[in-house]
Amino acid sequence: MRYGYWMPVFGGWLRNIPDEGMEASWNYTKRLAQASERWGYDLSLVAELNLNDIKGTDAPALDAWSTAAALAAVTESIELMVAVRPNFHHPALFAKAAANIERISGGRLALNVVSSWWADEARQYGLQFDQHDDRYARTSEWLRVVDGLWSEERFSFAGQYYTTEEAICAPKPGKRPTIYAGGESDAAKTLIAAQCDAYVMHGDPVGAIAPKIADMAARREATGGAPMQFGMAAYAIVRDSEAEAKRELERIMTVSDLPAGYDNFEQWLSGTQLERELKLQEYSVSNRGLRPNLVGTPEQLKERIAEYEAAGLDLLLLQMSPQAEEMERFAVQVMGTA
Fold it and tell me: Which residue, 335, 327, 334, is CA-closest to 34?
């Protein structure tokens, strides 16, 4: 199993806890990234939203790509999996900027391609917001342009959304970044199987994850492409006793008043195709992070992680709070690396 973590670009991950002790700042991000390498983490996911989806839209949120460029220069080993939304980035210009960051990182850049869901954010920034399946048509063209710029000396393209004419990207990436993407609709899965390298999922019990992996592996095989990688989001709480872990779980799930970001959550829920209705309690942690139940003693977490690995999962994308302290604890007690 590879262990990744979400960089806290929004100042944390708990919607019910106002101050998690990890501000959305470059200083905290830099310290956490450098410490994570010492603790043995493989990857950091840098999310991209211009509005803060966790702490409320008026709260600070770090820009993903300037943060990624800075992290590339001050880290040595972690893979930097940076979210990118096609309707926010022209693909030809993005291809050149990302190639430069890949060079700065020494080959550690990866993309998490996200077909946007937040209509209000796009409206505020004056950008196009596509309806559900149209998002994937745009993303497909966007990926073709990026790949073309990275692989051909001059690249011309004429599509519904994008056009290039003898465009140049030099220098090119030292190696092609891994393309991660997620989605639960048939349109999303078809795109990912054909054009991406890895499928990332929201958190779910292993019984729900295993058939998703099998389905995507079969879709990928049908395209003739190389085998896919599989990742999943999860929120982790590790304690010396199960009772301690459950007390911490109760603390983060307690809701007294609906937080400022709840309206944004409702919009996200209504704009995607989820397999089951999310409960209000799940709002406390993003990306269905509590469903994998990585809550308990080190031995319990190791057993559950082994079950996911047996189902074909390659990568855990972990959220914790407060992040630095909990990540070090997890590395010592579960990963055995720190």
Answer: 327
Coarse DSSP helix, strand, coil percentages of the chain, rounded to the nearest 5 percent: 45, 15, 40
One-letter identity of residue 246: K
Determine the CATH number of domain 2-335.
Answer: 3.20.20.30
Sketch the domain layout of the chain as residue ranges: 2-335
The C-alpha atoms of residue 112 and residue 196 are separated, in whole angstroms, by: 10
Confidence of residue 43 (pLDDT cuts 50, 70, 90): very high
Tokens of 315: 């990568």
Beta-ladder partners of 316: 3, 232
Q: Say which amino acid occupies 20.
A: E
336 CB contacts (<8 Å, ≥6 apart)?
A: none
Q: What does pTM read for this prediction?
A: 0.91
Residue type, 11: G
- Please tell me the distance from the alpha carbon of residue 206 to that of residue 210, in angstroms, as a whole number: 6
Coil, strand or helix at 23: coil
Beta-carbon-side half-sphere exposure of residue 254 (alpha carbons within 13 Å)? 9
Burial zone of 322 (CB within 10 Å; 0-12 exposed, 13-18 middle, 19+ buried): middle
Give the residues across from 163 on adjacent strands.
158
- Report the alpha-carbon distance of residue 59 to residue 297 in Å, rounded: 34
Residues 126-162: tens digit of each pLDDT: 988 887 778 899 999 999 999 999 999 999 999 999 9
Among residues 184, 190, 180, 141, the alpha carbon closest in space to that of 164 is found at 141
Structure tokens at 34: 């450098």
H-run or E-run covering 113: strand 109-113
Whether the CB-CB separation of 221 and 325 falls below 8 Å is answered with no
Backbone angles phi, psi at 260, to 5 degrees: -60, -30
Q: Reduce the DSSP state of residue 238 to 3 states and report it.
A: strand
* Tokens 């389905």 found at: 215
Q: Is the Cβ–Cβ distance between 206 and 306 less than 8 Å? A: no
DSSP state of 284: G
Q: How many other CB atoms are there within 10 angstroms of residue 215's CB atom?
A: 13
Q: What mean pLDDT value characterizes the chain? A: 92
Residues contacting residue 291 through CB under 8 Å, at least 6 positions apart: 202, 203, 204, 205, 208, 282
